[in-house]
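Appendix B. Chain record.
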Amino acid sequence: MTLVAILIATLCAGIGSVWVAAVLSFGVLARYTQHMLSLAAGALLATAFMHLLPEAFESQSSAQELFGTLLVGLVFFFLLDKAELWHHGHEHHHGPQTDAHAGHSHHDHHHDGHATPPRTGGWAVLTGDSVHAFGDGILIASAFMADMRLGFVAALAVLVHEVPHHMGDLVVLRGASSNRRVASLKVSLAGAVTALGGMVGYGLVDLLHDWLPYFLVVASSSFIYVALADLIPQLQTRLSARATAAQIAWLLIGMGLVTLVSRLVHEH
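Structure tokens predicted for this chain:
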């Protein structure tokens, strides 16, 4: 009975939060594309710095090990980004044409890098989401193992907390694929990993609790990387004072939403 409750709760939390975010991102706020980029950057940074990292460092794990994991995670997502760029470039440039001039090839890659932003960040976000969702599943399973009511409260808290974060994810994925349904499906599949975390957590809750801080740090590194390497550079353009103020305001709104929900979750 407990395992069934964990599965239902984790699926509702993991996928339900994505659907709520999709309704907001592609419905109510769909017309504010540029503003959503700012909100996404703010939400991802706040999720990492105001929620995941503090929770990781509250554990008994060594700070040096956690910072080392953060560093390795950032380098890993940089390499993942490079692989994604290489694959994208290979698909677009593969053909019978050959050019002996290296400068021409460099020009092509430079052109690709600026012609269709944002092309990267998709795999980094999905990887981070999956790791984060797995950790959420473990947390929900732990709560259910302690008390059934506490488990449902934890699942509801995860659902509410993940909405602003998933709004940021959907903006990144929409930019990478330019298709709302594909973006929503990918983030939903990553959210479904919450159920996997719940099942594994049900059987190995004590063992996995020791690894949970590292899951949180790895997820943080993906969100930090995507925000700083993919989203923020797109916002670094010359704008009017009014447009710049709006950009900053939406960045702060993204940070504020995640921070506020995180505090409410911790309080309750």
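Further analysis of this model is presented in Appendix C.
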